[in-house]
# Entry
Amino acid sequence: MTVVLVLGGARSGKSRYAESLASGEKHYVATAQAFDDEMRARIAAHKVQRGDGWVTHEAVFELPEVLIREMHDGRFVLVDCLTLWLSNVMLAEQDWQAALDQLLDALRAAKGTVVLVSNEVGMGLVPETPLGRAFRDAQGVVNQRVAAVADHAVFVAAGLPLPLKGPLPGR
# Structure
């Protein structure tokens, strides 16, 4: 069992790096919701970037349940991304801390390789709305707690992976 957290800013190359770690039976867990044309285009671009050979699962809210169902020995599971999952949970006014606890329990029981992509949102401007600040703070907690459970944590900047915890996972 290996759990890898890949952090970075928007368009930092974190998804491309995470995908480069894939081997064996590849499963992609998508957390995005396509509410507009721009997001539909982003999702389509990610599918093209990934290429063929991936089994895709949707997990708008039920990420822990999907992981428990899909994590198996010899299987590579990529979650892209925790940021959108948290946003979905918070906007639906669900208890994000309880959902995070369920996610951490699922990761502790992981079989195979699980790579989770997440945005580092705390390095920019202070959001001007209370919801924006609450989201930034919650995302920081999610990233810290997942990193604590992960075997490896990697920060990607300008397409370059920098190890934060453990050595860089092999590619």
